[in-house]
Amino acid sequence: MRYELVLATRNRHKGEELSALLGDLDVRIRTLAEFPDAPEVVEDGATCEANAVKKAVTIARATGLPAVADDTGLEVDALGGRPGVFAARYAGEGATYEDNCRKLLQEMKGVPCERRTARFITVAALAHPNGRVDVAQGTLEGVIAEESSGTSGFGYDPVFFVPAIGKTLAQLSAEEKNRISHRAKAFARMREILSASMEKVKQGL
Description:
This protein is an alpha+beta fold. Helices cover 32% and strands 24% of the residues. It has a single domain (3-202), classed as Maf protein, CATH 3.90.950.10. It contains 5 helices and 8 strands. Strands 1, 2, 3, 4, 5, 6, 7 and 8 form an 8-stranded mixed β-sheet that branches.
């Protein structure tokens, strides 16, 4: 029996990225588009882990299948760690990616380069219908650019500059980003967890 996994997200960009990160596993990846009655999950946790676990557990219960979810926060040192877990709605409910980037750049206006340090933190959660939950984390260090650059990616990618490669995340191809990103690091660990879980299924454990 082939292992099935539901991606607990309705974000098309994130779904495409997760599918690419997990694509070469021997697993049938399903999306929430196949489960129209699955509930919307309110991300009201105080941490990325709380949100990721809540999403994964809710969707696993609703579908009866293992579900994987993630949540990402952006910590900017000069802003005391903001926007943190509220990164996706930093400019308010219903804010676009552009709205959030614009607000961040405005708040960072005049901050010198050496104080623009920041990091992305992604927590991935795998929830099983039996209630077991596994989590994995990945981080990416960088600095907030002074202006948006690049057209790839999504979210804060155009303003997140990675000194080690001399580009913003939005200036990278999807393949390049998936080699170095916070989400890629979290899901590299999650792949190991999934592989172990799939092996147990094959052995009937």
